[in-house]
Every structure is written in structure tokens, then in C-alpha cells.
UniProtKB/TrEMBL annotation:
Pfam families: HTH_3 (PF01381). Residues 31-84 form the HTH cro/C1-type domain. Residues 1-21, 371-392, 471-490 are annotated as: Disordered. This is Helix-turn-helix transcriptional regulator. SMART domains: HTH_XRE, TPR. It comes from Streptomyces rhizosphaericus. The keyword Signal does not apply. PROSITE patterns: HTH_CROC1. Residues 306-333 form a coiled coil.
Amino acid sequence: MADRSAGDGRTAGTVTGAAGAESSAELGRRVLRLRTERGFTQRQLAEPAYTAAYVSTLEAGKVRPSEAALRHLADRLGVSYEELTTGRSPRDATRLRAAVTDARRALATGAAEDAAVLFAEVRDEAERLGFAEERSAALLGLGDCALETGDLTVARDHFEAVERLLAGEPLPRRIPAIRGRAVAHLLAGELRYSCYLLESSIDELNASGLHDPYALLLLYTAAIAPYMDMGAHARAVRAAELALALAPSVDDPGLIARMHRGVARTLIAEGRTAEADASLAKAQELYEQLRIHTDLAHCHWMRGYVHAQDGNLERAERELRTARDMLASKRAALFTVQVEVELADVLRRRGRTAEAEALLLPLLARTPAAGAADTAGEPDAAPGEARPGEAGLTADRGAVHAGGAHRLLGLIADERGDAEAAEEHYCAALSLLERTGAAGDLADLCRLLGDLLRREGRLEAAMDAYRTGLGHRAAPGTTTLGPAPAEPPM
């Protein structure tokens, strides 16, 4: 952009400094291109206020034009001042923003793979035109698509690209990408790192005085899930309280609905199932109005969990099946198999263990779907073992639910008297969950394993399992997370 302290441009001096030279050279090329496209001579473009020699010098990048000169040239060339100085056409920017909105709508109502195609088109054109804002919006959308399909490494790459692109922007602009990266780590089972990303961003916002309500609500809402999985219930409750306090300052129905989902998790943990169901009903109503199908499916999923906790297994099964079918129709592979683990738990509790086992065994894939190698010519998988390339749960893709699936298979084997298979599944679950830090689940598994070993007469091994479980239950969430993040002034 022109130096506004300069004169009218007719006698502007030469540009000094590499940065100024680069800017003037780029502007000069832009003026030359627009003039040539319109068939103007340098004199026609310059008159009546300037000279052909001045335009020639400007096009060569040898002068820094004033704002008055740039406005004259923009008017003669039939473009806006912004388009001339930045190269951004308002029409192109509006068109790309509309395309991002269309892609967001496609992600909300359809399959993530289809939406990703639209986001990729916006990203590529925005990069070609040099539109950083629209490019970052498209990359953020691609990250969200990858989260939904379970391509967690791809999701992290997209979110990190947004952070690099916006590195010079204020922190609130980067928060959606940081939140996306934290969710990717959470889904991969890296709970501590997910908490670290969220808490360090909260601290940085508050320490710098950037008390942006939208950014803080996004972070506190996202922090509830890893806190709950790690057994840090007090922190989860406080994050929910802060989110509720921030909500009136935020005009985003989708984010408010997501907050209600998070708050419901803390209410469930406190045994306040009726309040949790009411909170989920609010979220569900908002998602239905917005036609955000994936998040609506998550509401059915959590309502199924609420009913399961309340002992209403028939309603729980109905809600979980609805969630599973909705997610499967959107080809949200990772979320679909996670719901199936919780559905299998309800089926087992209803006495339908064969159905539960048949649902669980195919989920424990050796290889996630994304990036799988060609399996032509490979032998068939063993019964209950997913073929390579099938979507499933692994140590780095849904580790918490993979541990949950092994726990349920261990319970089923234990109930039918197969102690060897039960121990194998319990140990597999422990191996998966130890890297996640899911304290409550680990303590429960150690209890189950200890009970099994005690019944088998292996008392010393049982005592070791119990002691390990007690270690996980001691001060859950406080020894690994460090001090709680600073709170914003409310």
C-alpha cells in the first residue's frame, strides 16, 4: 500500500529498502497488467493529473505512489482502490467466501468427502489469487472434514497450515485451528497433549488481555472432553461453568449447541441425568434448526449415553442406533465405530452378548482406512479381525474406544467362563489406555483384571493390578496437567 505521508506522487522520490522495492515492483506490475488489459496508453491512464513518464516510472516499480495517485489510477482503470493496492478483487473475495459457505453447508448436511472437494477447490483458487483469509477458511474446513472421516494426521496437517498462514495475526484468529488440532489429538488418544494445547492457548489469551468471548468459549468447550476422559472432573466442571458464563456474549448457535453438549457431560458425571438430558435437548433443537447433521447425531449419541447411565437401556439403544445410522450415512467412519462400542455395551447389559460381540470384533482393525495399502492377493482376515484397510479402532485412532471395545470383549469372555480370553482383552485394553491417561477407565480395568486374577488364585498378580488401579485413581487429573489455566475476567 502507498505511503500516506508521501506527496501527490508527481514528484515522489525513489523507493529505498528491499521491502519497499518489492511492494512497489508488485504494484507496478499490477498497474501495467490492468492498463494493458484495458488497452490504455500510459498517457491515457495518467491524464489529466499525471504524466506518462510518471506512469512509466511507477510501472517499473521505481516510485512509491501516494494514496491520491492510487485512487486516480484505480478510477481510470475501473477497479476499486483495494483491488489496485492489494490485488484482491472484491468480487473474487465475495465469490470465494460464498464458496466456503457452500462447502460448510455440504459438510453439515452431507458426506465429509464431498465437502472436502469443495473446500479444496476454494483453497487452490485462493492460493492462486493470493487470498490468505479465504485460503485459511478453506484449510480449516478441510481439517474439519478430515476429523469427521477419521483421517487424524491429515486433519492436524490442515490445522497446522492454518496456524502458519495466520502466524502474524492476533491469537483469536488462530484459535479455531488450535481447537481443531486439540480435537485431533483427543481422538487419537493423546489426552494430555490435547489439554496442553487448549490450556496454553487459554493462558496466552488471558495473559495478553485478549479476552475474546468466542475464542475462550471455543477453548473451554473443547477442554471438557479431555478433562472428563482424564478424570479431571473438577476442571471439567469449572470449564463448563466458564463456558456458560461466556455464552451470552457469543452469537453463534452452533457453538452454543456444542457448549450444551459439553456441559451435559459434566452433569452426567455428577449423576444429574435429567439436567444433562435437558441440556442435550437444547443442543439438539439448535442443530435441527441449523441442519447440522453430524452434531445432531452426536446429540443422539450422548442422549443414548445418558439413558444408559440412567438404566433406561431400551431408550439408550434407540438413541445410539439413530446416532450410528446418521453418522454412517454421512460416512463419518471413526465416529460411527465409536458409537458402535457404546451400543455394544448396551446390548451386553440387555443380555444380548452374541450381538454385542458380533458388533465389537470387526471394529478392532489393524490398519485404519486412510492411506491403507492395496490388499489384493492378501489372505482373508481371521474371524473377528478386520482386514487391512477397513475402518476401525487402533492405538492412534480412537484409542479410548478401542480400549473400551477390548474391555467389553473381556467382560463377555469373563461372563462365559473363558478366563484366558478375558485376561487377554483386559491387558490389551490396559495397553491402549495407559498411553491416553484416561484415569477412570484405567482404574476400572485394573479392578476387573484384579478380580479375574484373584478368582484364578493368582493373588500376587491380583494385588499388583489393584495397586496399579489405585495409583490411577489417586488425585485424578492433578498430577499430569499442572496448574489450571488462568480465568478471564467475567
